[in-house]
Amino acid sequence: MSINKIILLGNVGKDPDVRYLDNGVSVARFSLATTERGYTLANGTVVPERAEWHNVVAWRGLAELAEKYIHKGSQLYVEGKITYRTWEDKNGQTRYTTEVVAENIELLGRRQQNQAEDNRPAQTDSGSPDPGAANPIQESAPRVESEQNTPADDADDLPF
């Protein structure tokens, strides 16, 4: 058995870039920063705060969620899997990209912050597997999971 799972909690670096493929499928790409706090060692050495940047890709319903609700500075909880791609740039150079393909995205933060960014009341997305379920993280924002990986039974979902 093997598992490819990543969980990120961070802030969006810029508004998502949403595109629609010829067949109507939407895809959104955005960067997410996770930060390790700085600290001081016992000997007085100061270790500064450090941010890691992650490239996140969301498909279909998650891309539509990103287009409507995710903006620069939004705080997100992202579950997904790590993928690696190889491609050639316009100069023929081979490039490598590491991406997180989102399977679940939850908007975090205060209700006022989310409403101010979007200028409309937050609401549960109809694509949510269980819109009536209590979710302490998601009081003010929609939760959407990837259609291809939606669990059949939500009973064993963790409450975060």
Encode the helix/strand succession as letters.
Answer: EEEEEEHEEHE
CATH top level class name:
Mainly Beta
Give the neighbour order of strands across the main sheet. Answer: 1-3-6-8-7
Question: What is the annotated CATH architecture?
Answer: Beta Barrel
N- and C-termini, Cα separation: 25 Å
Relative strand content: 35-45%
CATH-level-4 superfamily name: Nucleic acid-binding proteins
- Overall pLDDT metric: 78
Q: Which runs of at least 5 residues are low in confidence (pLDDT < 50)?
A: 120-144, 146-160
| Overall structural domain count | 1
Global morphology: globular
Total DSSP E strands: 9
Q: What's the arrangement of secondary structure elements?
A:
Elements: E1 6-12, E2 17-20, E3 26-36, E4 39-40, E5 46-47, E6 50-59, H1 60-69, E7 75-88, E8 94-108, H2 111-118, E9 143-145
Parallel strand pairs: 6-8
Antiparallel strand pairs: 1-3, 1-7, 2-3, 3-6, 4-5, 7-8, 8-9
Keywords:
single chain; 11% helix; two-stranded antiparallel sheet; mainly beta; 160 residues
Brief account:
It is built from two helices and nine strands; from the N terminus they run ββββββαββαβ.
Description:
It is a single chain. By secondary structure, the chain is mostly beta strands. It has one domain: Nucleic acid-binding proteins (OB fold (Dihydrolipoamide Acetyltransferase, E2P), Beta Barrel), CATH 2.40.50. 11% of the residues lie in helices and 42% in strands. It contains two helices and nine strands, in the order E-E-E-E-E-E-H-E-E-H-E. The strands form two sheets. A five-stranded mixed β-barrel has the order 1-3-6-8-7. Strands 4-5 form a two-stranded antiparallel ribbon. A hairpin with a 5-residue loop joins strand 4 and strand 5. Residues 120-144 and 146-160 have low confidence and may be disordered.
